[in-house]
Design goal:
With 523 residues, the protein is of the alpha+beta class. Helix content is 30%, strand content 24%. Strand 3, helix 1 and strand 4 form a beta-alpha-beta unit. The structure holds flavin-adenine dinucleotide (FAD). Flavin-adenine dinucleotide (FAD) binds next to helix 1, strand 10, helix 5 and strand 18. Flavin-adenine dinucleotide is lined by residues 17-23, 40-43, 47-50, 52-56, 183-184, 217-221, 225, 229, 243, 282, 327-330, 362, 365-368.
């Protein structure tokens, strides 16, 4: 701490701009190494790209075509690490890749999958196998006669927005100061440290903190943050590539996912989603628009319907679409011509000339590799942070995320235990809670003896007790935070029900202790 302009300014080891997966992943790792951490997010956690992904923890089969072996290997290894760390929000998923007569030959698919099976230290996930689509249930929803052969391989699925929040929760438990709805507006090097000025987006309240190192994990805003906030010039370029998804009522009954090849060389996934739906995506196109409000265009929706219609017997139109979401990949610009060919690997750029305090900017990166990216980021920052930064290296690969303190094959046992403890819960409700909170479900339900003890039910089993918990423990402030990021209950609530959630949250906010919105202030 020091005085600046008559104000007491707190000093941190690491200040992070951006509460997406990369910012929160770095915050967690740094806090667990004993470093003091400050993180500001201008909106809600995961409100940027990190809630708009396809939600796969995958090596990226198609990146093999671009010879991205380093990335694929690291990503493949992370699948089981993250599954073990968070078995409530990560689950294994089998992918069905139909052989398409006019597209990639079977030998090429087989070779790719052989590499995929062997590059990444697979221990728990089952290996690739061939399928006869005439007899396997995966063939039934597809166009009869067109697809007879497929390959089936393993990757994992993750609730992306919850992964971000759980990293933030763990970082906060380990002492990090996490500020949501708090924008970084200026950063300058002063007296051998970074001076960072933030502004609360609702109250306009400004605050200054100091930090030995600054991390720019602003995702699609990374270049803007460098030029407008830190006023630093950089040679590294960012390529914004939009990707959209559509959600339709479910097109098939089994629990496997399809990976469809398209004639334009792209691939599209059709994934079982939230029990009653199918998630289809994604597109890949350069993006030049506003970053605050990215939406799926009519062309993208039509494109995704048409790819699905090339494979599924049941034909869909844009009228079947119940929800869309869209995000931009903040890719490192490697000069590739096609958006789909731009590298998915990450680049960490450090600006620290003449012994100045360091600024590290994150370009690119995947949900899948966020944990390794955080380790690499701290390695790069360690010369500026002293011995602390190197302590406890690799700990995030060993410690579960909050709620994930159980073996990967015990999800059903967790649900049974929760019902034993709270017999008034319907199984579907208990299953939803275990999938969201894992072992933290009991913290949320507390001493409840009956459904009435959970307070008002806003629809789809969302209760007052759960909203309170999300506001208290997970920085939720609006209905969108609860219905579209902490959960996907937005798919099930009517507009009126969502408005009731908003009104209840606004009332609770009015009664809550004054901000600034750190978790401790809400507790
Ligand atoms: C369509 C699509 C599909 C994808 N699918 C997958 C997938 O299946 N698997 C996978 O591993 N990866 C996938 N990805 C990639 C992955 O989602 C991204 O690489 C990752 O989410 C990027 O995270 P981030 O933290 O860098 O950025 P973001 O999540 O965008 O976070 C940056 C944050 O910084 C905040 N911010 C910006 N400026 C400021 C400021 N001045 N002050 C405070 N806060 C600020 C923003 O509000 C934002 O929340 C996909 C990406 C897209 C677009």
């Amino acid at each position: 701490m020091h005085w600046s302009g008559g104000e007491l300014v707190r000093t941190f080891d690491v200040a992070i701009i951006g509460g997406g997966i990369n910012g929160c992943g770095i915050a967690r790792d740094a806090a667990g190494r004993g470093l003091s951490v400050f993180l500001c997010e201008q909106a809600d956690l995961a409100s940027g790209t990190s809630s708009a992904s396809t939600k796969l923890i995958h090596g990226g089969l198609r990146y093999l075509e671009y010879y991205e072996f380093r990335l694929v290997r690291e990503a493949l290894q992370e699948r089981e690490v993250l599954w073990r760390a968070a078995p409530h929000i990560v689950s294994p998923l089998r992918f069905v890749l139909p052989h398409h007569k006019g597209l990639r030959p079977a030998w090429l698919l087989r070779l790719g999958l052989f590499l995929y099976d062997h590059l990444g230290g697979r221990k728990l996930l089952p290996a690739t196998r061939s399928l006869n689509l005439r007899t396997d249930a995966a063939g039934a929803p597809l166009k009869a006669g067109d697809f007879t052969k497929a390959f089936e391989y393993s990757d994992c699925w993750v609730d992306d927005a919850r992964l971000v929040v759980l990293n933030a929760v763990d970082a906060a438990r380990r002492g990090a100061d996490i500020r949501t709805r708090t924008r970084a507006v200026a950063a300058e090097r002063r007296n051998g440290a970074w001076s960072l000025t933030t502004e609360h987006v609702d109250s306009g309240e400004r605050e200054e903190i100091a930090a030995k190192t600054l991390v720019n994990a602003a995702g699609p805003w990374v270049a803007r943050t460098l030029s407008d906030v830190a006023k630093v010039e950089t040679k590294a370029g960012i390529r914004l590539v939009q990707g959209s998804h559509i959600v339709v009522p479910k097109l098939f009954d089994h629990d496997r996912c399809y990976i469809f090849q398209n004639t334009d060389g792209r691939i599209v996934f059709a994934i079982p989603y939230e029990q009653d739906f199918t998630l289809i995506g994604t597109t890949d196109q350069d993006y030049q628009g506003e970053l605050g409000n990215i939406r799926a265009s009519a062309e993208e929706i039509a494109y995704l319907c048409s790819v699905a219609n090339g494979y599924f017997a049941k034909q869909i139109t844009p009228k079947d679409v119940v929800w869309t979401y869209s995000g931009v990949r903040p890719l490192y610009d490697d000069g590739a011509s096609a958006a789909q060919a731009a590298t998915r690997d990450y680049v960490l750029a450090v600006d620290a000339e003449d012994d100045q305090p360091a600024l590290l900017s994150v370009f690119g990166g995947k949900i899948t590799t966020y944990r390794r990216l955080a380790e690499h980021a701290l390695e790069k920052l360690s010369p500026f942070l002293g011995a602390h930064a190197s302590q406890n290296r690799g700990w995030t690969g060993r410690e579960p995320l909050p709620g994930g303190e159980f073996p990967v094959d015990h999800v059903a046992a967790q649900i049974d235990q929760l019902i034993n403890r709270y017999p008034f819960l319907a199984r579907a409700h208990a299953a939803r809670l275990v999938r969201m909170y894992g072992t933290r479900s009991k913290d949320m339900l507390g001493a409840a003896q009956s459904a009435a003890d959970l307070g008002r039910d806003f629809g789809a089993t969302l209760t007052e007790a759960e909203i309170d918990y999300l506001m208290r423990e997970e920085w939720a402030e609006t209905s969108a935070d609860v219905l579209w990021r902490r959960s996907k209950l937005g798919l099930r609530l009517s507009v009126e029900q969502a408005a009731a959630v908003d009104a209840a949250m606004a009332a609770r906010r009015r009664n809550a202790a004054p901000r600034p919105g750190s978790m401790s202030a809400l507790a």
